[in-house]
Amino acid sequence: MSWKLVEGKKEKEIRKAYGQTLDELLQTRKDIVVCDADLASSSGAGFIYSKYPENSVNFGISEQNMISAGAGMSFVGMKPFVHSFAPFVSRRVTDQIFMSLGFSKGSMHIYASDPGYWSLYNGATHTTFEDLAIVRSIPSINVVAPSDATSFAWVMKYYVEHGGIFYNRAPRKVVPIIYEEGSTFEYGKGQWIKKGTDVVLLGEGPSVSDCLEAAKLLEEQGISTSVVDLLFIKPLDEKLIKEVASSHKLVVTVENHSKYGGIGELIAGTMAELPAKAPLRKIAVQDRFGEVGTKEYLKTIFHISVKDIVETVLENKNVLV
User: Residue 275: what pLDDT?
Assistant: First the structure.
């Protein structure tokens, strides 16, 4: 593991990282096959289909078939990369992931794009606040939520080298860059991005950037704040959770997911087995369906914005004394 935080404010589309990394891998690995369900241009891999026609398949709007066929490819030595919007490679294909991949011991990288509020104007049918709850219950699957394009690309390369089933949950769009290009990480481990002593903010995916922004605002009010990038949802870095729970006065989880079955419940379960007395507060989407709107509007109405993070900590300021 060798990662370094980026200096200054930089941004990058994660779908560009997807296409660029596939291109880089395909230059030396002919066992890779890129699969999509009529969304190759949306995933950032559109040019792959013309550049590497023998290593790419468009299945059309047939996600169940794509997962099962991709699993079959893995049984003959291929390394399938499949993509669709998050609801269509989680709730729509649960049985195929469970039986064709998990139970059958297949191998696949699943790019689950635009989860939660990232669906923006695509509406409720394309919004998924339940995918973590669904997929992490499947035995043997790895569930990751990269915070930026750098960690996203690392997951792709790790999969090619080690195999397994990886559910890679990330937007397609522009997100702040947290890690320098070329940074490497450790399987099953999270990262301390910032260390404080009062409150720790544990984020998944690009919510980590919101945690960093909230931490800055809290520091201005005299609250020493840590920020942790989980990266791995399954397996969870339980050693790290034990460390943060025992060294802070307040633990706050932040996620672009339902409060049911997300990282809040996952970390609460881990903390329940510890002697640590730090209270846990969960910032997550309540029991509701999605709707359309801008990113900032949706984060506000779902109460998972930077403002909500800061207000949650301030509402619990009594435990920080």
Answer: 87
